[in-house]
Design brief:
With 159 residues, the protein is mostly helical. It has seven helices and two strands, in the order H-H-H-E-E-H-H-H-H. The longest helix has 16 residues.
């Protein structure tokens, strides 16, 4: 996989937050349980997204985390860059320093086009369009369920 596990969980968590009907805070415990992600691991991921300004947290009984902007204003590239960095989109696939048009590696030509295509897709896809599509088609967001299950208030109704 090109993206780290943390980045994948960051994307899923961000998508979950964008799919919420209101813009209130959602507890990290709820996100952890509904997405079946380790609470402690998720907390570290969300701290990265908070430190870059994509999310904000609030402590207290009604605390939690939320996106700082509308899901339509957050593209997937922002999340990937915040967690995994942009090196995936700039470095040689074989890890060779100085690889480029003037001094390419054997994989450069194919990788550069693929890499640029992935970046374009991430930059031109926002959270809200995926949340809307996920809800409308009840697409999967966890191993066990789709958006319909996630948005149900009773976590035990998953089947």
């Amino acid at each position: 996989m090109l993206l780290s596990k943390g980045c994948i969980y960051g994307l899923r968590s961000s998508l979950f937050l964008a799919s919420q009907e209101n813009d209130g805070y959602v507890s990290i415990r709820e996100i952890s349980e509904k997405l079946d992600i380790s609470f402690h691991f998720l907390t570290k991921i969300l701290q990265q997204l908070t430190s870059t300004g994509l999310m904000e947290s609030h402590k207290g009984p009604k605390g939690g985390i939320r996106l700082t902007k509308s899901g339509s204003e957050v593209n997937l590239f922002e999340i990937v860059a915040a967690i995994d960095g942009v090196e995936l989109f700039t470095e040689c696939a074989l890890g060779l320093p100085g690889c480029g048009v003037k001094k390419p590696c054997p994989l450069h030509e194919k990788w550069a086009g693929t890499r640029d295509g992935i970046r374009y897709m991430l930059e031109n896809t926002n959270l809200m369009e995926l949340a809307k599509k996920g809800k409308e088609q009840n697409l999967r967001i966890t191993e066990h369920g789709g958006f319909e299950w996630l948005l149900n208030n009773d976590c035990n109704d998953a089947s």
